[in-house]
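From the pipeline queue, job 12 of 40. The input is one protein chain; the requested action is below.

Action: predict structure.
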Amino acid sequence: MAQRYSGEKSFSTLFLVLLLILTCGVFMNLKIITDRIMRKKVPGSSIIYLPKGEYLKFATFGYSSLLADMIYLWAIQYYSDYTIPDSSQYLDHIFTIISELDPQYFDAYDVGAFIAAYEAQDLDLALKILNLGLEKIPQEWWFPYIAAHYLQFIKKDHEMAQEYYKKAMSIEGCPPIVRRLYADAIFKTTDYQAAWQAWLEIYNTAEDERIKRVASNHLYNVKATMDIEMLKEAIAKYREKYGRNPADLSKLVYAGFLKSVPKDLDDKEYFYDAQTGEVKTPTIPWKR
């Protein structure tokens, strides 16, 4: 009985060895065939067979960071070659592998998001990479800051940009300029009261006179925007009632459409064209 069991065990072992050899042969043959195909026909053919980073770690014997460096340097060269069609197809895969091999790899998140945003024009992927970077390196204000930058200046999503700016500002070491960009994002959403408060706080807390001047100019712009919108609305009501534009802005008060005619932050009157109904600031905010 023991001899029979031993024979069955030997047969099973032999079968597994033969199956392993056959499997390896199939994969080797597949690799040879793949390597013969032109790179342009199979974009990223050299990386599509890489497993996840968590599996690659076992094969590095403690040198996963070194492998992450190698893959990162390869990726920089690969994504610098604009002749390769659809190169962004494996972008998520390759930079995910790098982050799994070395979760603290700052440059991989930063550059990967840059390539996704500007080369692949895939802002959702850029945000995914930056969110992963913030998850792995939570002390880095740069990741939410650059995410807000992409949202504000590429996607023009100023509301979501505000959320990322707030995340950046909550992290120690975040530079003051992020606070100013946050205030600008609020203004872009047309929440002028909130924008006024944000810029006023910056003005009141700024120690640098240059920053105070910048904040003052933005405060001027916020107030002028609110005033001109209010004046235009009153002018439209006046025109609807009387069939013409008011001869001057004071007529809006006499007609009951305004309590008083507003002045700009420097206590100067706004320019008004009675023929067109257009209202302008007496000076350019950034040249005060």
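Job complete. The chain is about 65% helix and 0% strand.
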